[in-house]
Amino acid sequence: MATTAQLFEEPFDADEYIERLAWRTPGGGSKGGAEAFDPKRLLEEFENHIEELKQLDEKIQRRVEKLEHQCHREAKEFAHKVQDLQRSNQVAFQHFQELDEHISYVATKVCHLGDQLEGVNTPRQRAVEAQRLMIYFNEFLDGDLRSDVFNNPDKIKEAADIIQKLHLIAQELPFDRFADVKAKIASKYHDLERQLIQEFTAAQRRGEIGRMREVAAVLLHFKGYAHCVDVYIKQCQEGAYLRNDVFEDTAVLCQRVNKQVGEVFSSPETVMAKLIQNIFENKLQAHVREKLDETRHSDVEQYLKNLYDLYTRTTLLATKLAEFNLGSDKHTFLSKLIKSIFSSYLESYIDMERDYLRTRGAMILQRYYDSKNHQKRLIGTGSIQELKERIRQRTNLPLGPIIDTHGETFLSPELVVNLLQETRHAFERCNKLSDPSDLPKNAFSIFLLLVDHLCVEHIDYALEIGLSAIPSSDAKNANLYFLDVVQQANSIFHLFDKQFNDQLMPLISSSPKLAECLHKKKEVIEQMEVKLDTGIDRTINCMVGQMKYILATEQKKTDFRPEDENNVMIQYTTACSKVCAYVSRQVEHVRKSMDGKNVDTVLTELGVRFHRLIHEHLQQYSYSSMGGMLAICDVAEYRRCAKDFRVPLVLQLFDTLHALCNLLVVAPDNLKQVCSGEQLTNLDRNLLHAFVQLRVDYRSSRLGRHFS
């Protein structure tokens, strides 16, 4: 059985169990073993082992039954014990309830007895206290203060309590009979009050927080308690303002005092509020008045900077002080203190801001024009100017004398930066110093000044000068500077627009002034765009006029009817070369001066006029066979130049013109076929006929017959 028990080792595997049993049986191994395989012996061993297993199973089953019986018996015993414990617990709970009721009954009796004792003791204590006060009052009545409490400095606290009560009693006595004693009590009252305040002051200087707390508690019932607080506030500030920064010193002082008042006074929030009020009404107000009054009339720029800086630092200080316990409505309290300091300055702020910006802007503009030795021309206003403007828009003619600006645009990035910088500071001051209800109105007034100085007095004036400087379309070798004006005006207006969005919009976005600002901005943009469009259109006319001049002076009739048809060595004519060079320069100039879609718009207009000029120019000549080939070469060069425009319409126009020029050289028999080609089939037949008529051989009956 021991062997069998060993075979049941964990983990149990039936196959492994049989293998191990066979291995332990002599003759039960494999045939290749040292001992021959004996199946009968192995069978006998298995049968014996099975019997052993049965016996082992019976033994284990008996043991299990015994343990189960024992478990049932112990479970019944445990259940009986639990029932006994429940009964005991119920009895104990009943006893506890009885005890609790008894304790409650006794406590009620004790409370009732305590109330009775208190009812008896309180009148007795009052009587004792009254007797004691009468004894002290009698001493004042006799004029001889014999009690030790009035003569011993160490008992000043007890004496203060007595004299405070006597002082209250004396106030109820008739004056005619007790005038003398009332005066003596009042004198002693004031004397003790003075001594307590002196003691508090001395303790504060020594830094004895405990003694300060005791004296303050005694003085709390005296009329001089407020004076004690005043003395404390005054002494707190001694030596606190040694640096030049009154705001930082105030923050440090209040931080230090805030920790102390809670340990000394019974109502620290009242003391802190009184300290802050004292600082604002004395130190800060004097500091603000000193800084502002000295520059208010002598240096307005510095005055506005100081006002903004002082107000900002004061509000920042108030934000820090709001962290302390100053009562229930501390934010309103601090706002009133700030208003009491700055109200007189804030009332006149926006008027001074506008006057300063108006003067400063005019000075910046005048300084710039003086640096250019330029005397500003008076730009007309009213109905006459409006009439001139309408005539200029419709006729595109210069009204008035042409001015030679020598390439000067009269637009200054430095001037613009200065104006925008001044306005940015003004918006910042306006946001901080204006009343919230007046903020949109004040910001709008600043915006109008910016529009007047930057857009009207500078940009619009430069556009007017630029328009006056544009030469007539038939001028020769004219210098065209208006595109430089356009470039700088666009750059400046981008800066103006950025300030509008970044600085002005947050101040007016939720007010009715937003619509007014947007309308004013739109009006300014439209006025500028009209003048820009007019100037660009006249500039393009000048460009076309210069091309026309080059063609008129450089193109010869013999170019397209050479005397020697067999000895033409050039790829294209001189006129074509110079026109293309000129156009390329102007295209590059336009690209540098414009941005966005404006580049394509202007180049499209220039390209269309360029094509129209070349088209009309080619129709002024008659062409031989070799001259027609040269005209095709010229148009090919024009088309190559048109590619620089990067405008599909312009390139398409020159492609069509190139196809038209093929009519100048095509064989008469192929004329109809060429005219019906893809590029020419949609053109007006009169236009095709006009080009065919330019051929020198057109008058031959054969060519006319082929075209018809």
Automatic annotation (TrEMBL):
Q: Which residues form the Exocyst complex component Sec10 N-terminal domain?
A: 39-148
| BP term (GO), one | cilium assembly
Q: Which InterPro entries match?
A: Sec10-like (IPR009976), Sec10_HB (IPR048627), Sec10_N (IPR048625)
Any idea which UniProt keywords this protein has?
A: Coiled coil, Exocytosis, Transport
Start and end residues of each Exocyst complex component Sec10-like alpha-helical bundle domain:
158-706
> Where along the sequence do coiled-coil regions lie?
43-70
Q: Which GO terms describe its cellular component?
A: exocyst
Q: Which family does it belong to?
A: Belongs to the SEC10 family.
The protein's name: Exocyst complex component 5
Taxonomic source organism? Cottoperca gobio (Frogmouth)
Gene designation per UniProt:
exoc5
